[in-house]
Structure formats: C-alpha cells, structure tokens
C-alpha cells in the first residue's frame, strides 16, 4: 500500500538499519537508498508516505531534487550536531522537520505517530473540498468531472493558464482512480531537448547512442499500471507526437535502439497552457493526436475569474505555512489588496506571495506593507474613479447596472470577458443580468 512505504536516503547504513527497525515496529515498510540516483529512481517508480534525508548525500541540494520528483511527499532531514544549520535552512526550502543523529528510535516513532494523526486530520479536511480547493461553481463542476473520469481509463486533456493547478488536477484524478497505489509519473515535455525526451519517454537500449552505457527504462515503462502526466504537451516536437499517438492507440512501443515491442498499461493525462486547436490549425500539433488526447477536457479557470475563492485559498496557504512558521492572519486591508489583484501567475503566484508575506511580517498579522508593490499598484488602479458622481447623487444599483451593460458592450457580448472586466465570476455576472433584467445579447 502506498501509505505504508517510507524511504530512508542516507549513506550511513548502520543508522539506516536502526531506523528501519523502528519504522517496521510502527507498521510501515522501510526502503533504503544509500545514494541519490537510487533514491530518484525509487521516487519515480513509487509513491512514499514519508522520506528521511541524510545530509551526507548533500552534493547538489538533494532536497530540491527530491521535491521536483515527488513534490508532495513530506521530508524529514537527518542532521548531525554540526549540520543543524543546514537542516534549518532545508526547513525553509520545504522540508517538514529534522531529527538529529544518532537517531533515537523512540523519537522517530513519535514523529510517525504525529504524522499519522495530522494525515488523518488532513484527510478529513480535504474531504470538504474534494480534489481542487474552491467553492465557485466552475470548481465544483470540475471536481464532479474529476470524480467521474477517475472511475474510467479515458485520456484527459487539462488546459488552463500557468499556475492554475493543472498538475494538481491530474494528480487528483490519479489519486481518485483505481491506479492510486501505482506510479504517477510526470514528464515535462518542454524541459528536455528532443533526443533526450525520446529516451526519457521510451527508454533506451545499451549502446543506442553515444553515452548510452546501460539500458534504461523510460517514463512510460516506469508508469506501467499507473498514470503518465505529460505536462506542456503543446510543446512536444512533431516527431515525438507521432510516437505518442502510437502508444495511445496500440499501448505498445520500443525502447530507443531496441527491437523488442513492449506492451504497457498506462493512463495518459496531458496538460497545456497553449490553445491546442490553434496549434493544430498552424500545423504545430497533430490533429489525430489532439482528438486522441481530448477525450475528456477539463479547463481550469484563471484565479481572476474565480475571485470568490481567494479568501479560501489564502487561508489554506496560511494554514499550510503555519506548520513551518508562526501562524499568521491577514488584515482586512491586505485581504482587499489580495482580492483586487489580477493574479497573472494564478495560484502559484498566490502561494509565493503569501509565503513571502508570512516570512517578512514580524507581527502576527500580514499587512499591506508585507505584500509586493504590484498588489498595491493594482489596488490604486481599481480605486481610480471611473464614474463621475453627479451633484444630485446616483443610486448604486444604477451604477452597477450601467457597469454591467458597459462590460457586455466592451466584450461584444462575451460573458466570460465581461465578467473578467468586472472582476466577478461568469455565474455572478449572469445572476446580476437576470436580477436587473439586462439582455445578454448586446
Ligand atoms: N486548488 C488548489 N489548492 C491549493 N493549491 C493549489 C491549487 N491549485 C494549485 N495549487 C498550487 O499552486 C501551484 C501551481 O499548481 P500546478 O503546478 O498544478 O499548476 P499548473 O497549472 O500545472 O502550472 P504550469 O502550467 O506552470 O505547470 C502548486 O504549488 C500547487 O500546489
């Protein structure tokens, strides 16, 4: 079971064995990796409940490396008296906690008990919002869709601007599916040059090209019985698109330089922030592949189109950060700035801004001064008077009606754009048009 595996990464084998015994006594399975490459290949293949990371493996920041392969796994640093400062630094980079060596088995067991209790709490609180955190109608609908598609093996295409949570959605589908205890393997199609991407996806045989000293399994093979998440699919080179199409159609492939045909059972979820139908028209994306991928389409709206979720997301991030830093709350004025901002980097940007604010505020409260200048600017722009107040006064209802009509005219009747111009959701716009009897066709 996924939840029962704990990975120990440390080159101090006798310490690993002590930890292994304590872990087993608590009913978990311990897996030991004595070097970073072994650890990475385990992290690609399996999902772990927890990782212990010894600082002796520290050459090119293994913490960051592990987080890139397994972003959500909690990591506990193992530190010597002399390396405690480094361990504290690791906490700032996202490690959950640290233990000093020699490891005290009782302390280790306590950590496992605390984690298990907080895991149970987390599970009961995540049930409130199911998969994607949010209460706006669009997110409720997406969560329903995630639940439905999770029960199938259908290919899913997830679209949305950068930072809207496409990977979170893909992972949610995997976790809610029958494949949840099998691998979830991510490939970022834009991060790798074409030749490397091919070997990364399909693996290679020994001697397939200069530098291929050993046989290597590709991500599809590693994901057998699980899910492959192809991020930034819109940037996949055309030659690779043809090979991907074959995998989707025939569920088979050959390693680079190999003749043996391998059959695999994987579910494919792809994501892009590009407009794939435009790419098809421009000849940059294969039409047949587009239809193959687009069996189920999930579109994640940008944060500015679901502003009502902003306070909920802010408190979610504050809550998460309170495990590492002192618990803080956001002042009313700062919340207003957060609400008014247009969030071009979406939820990722919000997460960074809240983390920065939590770190720099000395107080228990986050104030406007702790937010970056662009948020203050956006607020100044929104308060700039755009409507003149006549001497005889004007009713607010009338102002709202006029603004809605202006937004619909400006967007040439496009409801999504009009809602964007007003900083409200499309359903909030439709509600208001109905309330005031404003016709939708302008
Ligand atoms: N609904 C959500 N609740 C909490 N955190 C979220 C949510 N959606 C996204 N995030 C967080 O926002 C960040 C960006 O999410 P993610 O990587 O899934 O976005 P993306 O759309 O795949 O971005 P990109 O296109 O740049 O790859 C992550 O740190 C993720 O944990």
Automatic annotation (TrEMBL):
<dbReference type="InterPro" id="IPR058031">
    <property type="entry name" value="AAA_lid_NorR"/>
</dbReference>
<dbReference type="GO" id="GO:0005524">
    <property type="term" value="F:ATP binding"/>
</dbReference>
<keyword id="KW-0804">Transcription</keyword>
<dbReference type="InterPro" id="IPR003593">
    <property type="entry name" value="AAA+_ATPase"/>
</dbReference>
<protein>
    <recommendedName>
        <fullName>Stage 0 sporulation protein A homolog</fullName>
    </recommendedName>
</protein>
<keyword id="KW-0067">ATP-binding</keyword>
<dbReference type="GO" id="GO:0006355">
    <property type="term" value="P:regulation of DNA-templated transcription"/>
</dbReference>
<feature type="domain" description="Sigma-54 factor interaction">
    <location>
        <begin position="132"/>
        <end position="359"/>
    </location>
</feature>
<dbReference type="InterPro" id="IPR002197">
    <property type="entry name" value="HTH_Fis"/>
</dbReference>
<dbReference type="Pfam" id="PF25601">
    <property type="entry name" value="AAA_lid_14"/>
</dbReference>
<dbReference type="GO" id="GO:0043565">
    <property type="term" value="F:sequence-specific DNA binding"/>
</dbReference>
<dbReference type="Pfam" id="PF00072">
    <property type="entry name" value="Response_reg"/>
</dbReference>
<keyword id="KW-0547">Nucleotide-binding</keyword>
<dbReference type="InterPro" id="IPR001789">
    <property type="entry name" value="Sig_transdc_resp-reg_receiver"/>
</dbReference>
<dbReference type="Pfam" id="PF00158">
    <property type="entry name" value="Sigma54_activat"/>
</dbReference>
<keyword id="KW-0805">Transcription regulation</keyword>
<feature type="domain" description="Response regulatory">
    <location>
        <begin position="5"/>
        <end position="116"/>
    </location>
</feature>
<dbReference type="GO" id="GO:0000160">
    <property type="term" value="P:phosphorelay signal transduction system"/>
</dbReference>
<dbReference type="InterPro" id="IPR027417">
    <property type="entry name" value="P-loop_NTPase"/>
</dbReference>
<dbReference type="InterPro" id="IPR009057">
    <property type="entry name" value="Homeodomain-like_sf"/>
</dbReference>
<dbReference type="InterPro" id="IPR025943">
    <property type="entry name" value="Sigma_54_int_dom_ATP-bd_2"/>
</dbReference>
<comment type="function">
    <text>May play the central regulatory role in sporulation. It may be an element of the effector pathway responsible for the activation of sporulation genes in response to nutritional stress. Spo0A may act in concert with spo0H (a sigma factor) to control the expression of some genes that are critical to the sporulation process.</text>
</comment>
<dbReference type="InterPro" id="IPR011006">
    <property type="entry name" value="CheY-like_superfamily"/>
</dbReference>
<dbReference type="Pfam" id="PF02954">
    <property type="entry name" value="HTH_8"/>
</dbReference>
<dbReference type="InterPro" id="IPR002078">
    <property type="entry name" value="Sigma_54_int"/>
</dbReference>
């Amino acid at each position: 079971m996924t939840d029962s595996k704990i990975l120990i990464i440390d080159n101090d084998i006798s310490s690993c064995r002590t930890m292994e015994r304590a872990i087993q006594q608590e009913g978990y399975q311990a897996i030991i990796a004595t070097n970073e490459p072994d650890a990475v290949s385990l992290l690609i293949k399996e999902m772990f409940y927890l990782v212990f990371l010894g600082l002796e493996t520290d050459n090119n920041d293994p913490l960051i490396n592990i987080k890139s392969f397994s972003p959500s796994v909690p990591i506990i640093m193992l530190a010597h008296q002399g390396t405690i400062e480094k361990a504290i630094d690791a906490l700032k980079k996202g490690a959950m906690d640290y233990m000093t060596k020699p490891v005290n088995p009782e302390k280790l067991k306590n950590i496992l008990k605390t984690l298990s209790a907080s895991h149970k709490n987390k599970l009961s609180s995540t049930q409130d919002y199911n998969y994607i955190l949010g209460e706006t109608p669009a997110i409720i609908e997406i969560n329903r869709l995630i639940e439905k598609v999770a029960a199938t093996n259908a290919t899913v295409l997830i679209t949305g601007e950068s930072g809207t949570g496409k990977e979170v959605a893909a992972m949610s589908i995997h976790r809610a599916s029958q494949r949840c205890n099998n691998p979830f393997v991510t490939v970022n199609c834009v991060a790798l040059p074409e030749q490397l991407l091919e070997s990364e996806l399909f693996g290679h045989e020994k001697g397939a090209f200069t530098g291929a000293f050993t046989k290597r399994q590709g991500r599809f093979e590693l994901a057998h019985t699980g899910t492959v998440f192809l991020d930034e699919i819109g940037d996949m080179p055309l030659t690779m698109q043809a090979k991907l199409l074959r995998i989707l159609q025939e569920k088979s492939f050959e390693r680079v330089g190999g003749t043996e045909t391998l059959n695999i059972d994987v579910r494919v979820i792809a994501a892009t922030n590009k407009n794939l139908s435009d790419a098809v028209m421009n000849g940059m994306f294969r039409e047949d592949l587009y239809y193959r991928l687009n069996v189920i389409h999930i579109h994640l709206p940008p944060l500015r189109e679901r502003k009502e979720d902003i306070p909920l997301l802010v408190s979610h991030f504050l809550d998460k950060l309170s495990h590492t830093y002192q618990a803080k709350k956001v002042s009313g004025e700062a919340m207003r700035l957060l609400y008014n901002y247009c969030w071009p980097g979406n939820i990722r940007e919000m997460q960074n801004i809240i983390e920065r604010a939590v770190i720099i505020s000395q107080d228990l409260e986050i104030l406007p001064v702790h937010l970056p200048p662009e948020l203050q600017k956006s607020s100044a722009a929104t308060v700039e008077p755009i409507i003149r107040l006549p001497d005889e006064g004007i009713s607010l209802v009338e102002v709202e009606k006029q603004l809605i009509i202006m937004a619909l005219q400006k967007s040439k009747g496009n409801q999504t754009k009009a809602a964007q111009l007003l900083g409200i959701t499309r359903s909030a716009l439709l509600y208001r048009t109905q309330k005031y009897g404003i016709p939708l066709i302008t």
